[in-house]
TrEMBL record:
Residues 156-239 form the Arb2 domain. InterPro entries: AB_hydrolase_fold, Arb2, Arb2_dom. One of its GO terms (cellular component) is nucleus. It comes from the Eukaryota. It comes from Trichomonas vaginalis (strain ATCC PRA-98 / G3). GO terms for biological process: regulatory ncRNA-mediated heterochromatin formation. This is Arb2 domain-containing protein.
Length: 281
């Protein structure tokens, strides 16, 4: 089967064409992965832009839609058609910081380890298999600058707070599951601090991966007890995957099964899914 030209990336460093195969691995025309080549692959902004466009096309094929927050020159978020219509189950994904747009967790991980490890695509497919709706936030996009500052937070959190306040909370989802990587953990803390009563009533589980952790105030009197059982951070560790580790002041910790920060979400995926499903996903 021929590969559309837009789905082929020519790497100038190796002077080879690459594409993602059916298993989601980035391979050359002989089926060799980047890891099979000597150094030379150029993981630069041009590749990142191409990869993002590729993943956006795949999200469109999965039936996701996109809209700007705010509507004028805002940040594009991605979502399933029923995400903002009283969803019974809703998965919210928040990426870390850097050159990571909605749909990606790590550019380099996608190239070297495949889309299942470095993108949101496997999470979208899992959610669909569980009849869940999906919302993918875009905290690194500069569109947050168009928002009127309402909270004592930084830009990426402003974006996340706006999506929750304007779209997610008013749509009255019943059971929400949150996945947040790295700096996305800071956004989660801001969301929980600002919408705490709603958060502990509707968010059934929050999975963090090697995340930045901040203080969540105990505004309800039982928030900290909630966090002990409904929030887990799978952190970088040499311990076997999913091994229980000493908790932080915020939440329980488990091993992601790797010390490689960008790989933690992909490595912990099966453990997170098992936990989400145990809690009703």
């Amino acid at each position: 089967m021929s590969i559309p030209a837009e789905d082929i990336w020519h790497d100038e460093g190796l002077n080879l064409d690459f594409h993602f195969n059916e298993q989601g691995f980035f391979v050359d025309n002989e089926g060799k992965r980047i890891l099979d080549h000597p150094k030379g692959f150029q993981n630069n902004d041009l590749f990142g832009d191409w990869l993002h466009a590729y993943v956006e096309r795949q999200m469109t094929k999965e039936g996701l839609l996109s809209r700007l927050i705010p509507e004028d020159n805002g940040s594009p978020i991605w979502y399933t058609p029923g995400a903002f219509n009283q969803a019974d189950k809703l998965l919210v994904i928040i990426c870390g910081s850097g050159r990571i747009p909605a749909g990606l967790l790590s550019v380099g991980v996608c190239a070297y380890h495949g889309l299942d490890m470095g993108s949101d695509l496997p999470w979208i497919r899992w959610a669909k298999s569980r009849n869940m709706e999906v919302v993918i936030l875009n905290p690194n996009h500069i569109g947050y600058r168009q928002l009127k500052k309402k909270y004592n937070t930084y830009g990426s959190s402003e974006h996340c707070l706006a999506v929750f306040e304007d779209l997610i909370i008013p749509s009255s989802p019943n059971n929400v599951y949150v996945l947040a990587h790295s700096m996305g953990g800071e956004c989660v803390c801001d969301i929980c601090n600002n919408f705490q009563e709603w958060y502990i009533q509707h968010v059934k589980a929050t999975a963090l991966t090697d995340a930045v952790e901040d203080v969540i105030k105990n505004k309800t009197g039982f928030t900290h007890n909630y966090l002990k059982t409904r929030m887990i951070d799978w952190v970088g560790s040499s311990e076997e995957g999913n091994t229980k580790l000493p908790p932080s002041k915020l939440c329980a910790h488990r091993s992601a099964g790797t010390k490689d920060h960008p790989l933690t979400t992909g490595k912990a995926k099966d453990y997170i899914i098992e936990w989400f499903e145990k809690l009703g996903a």
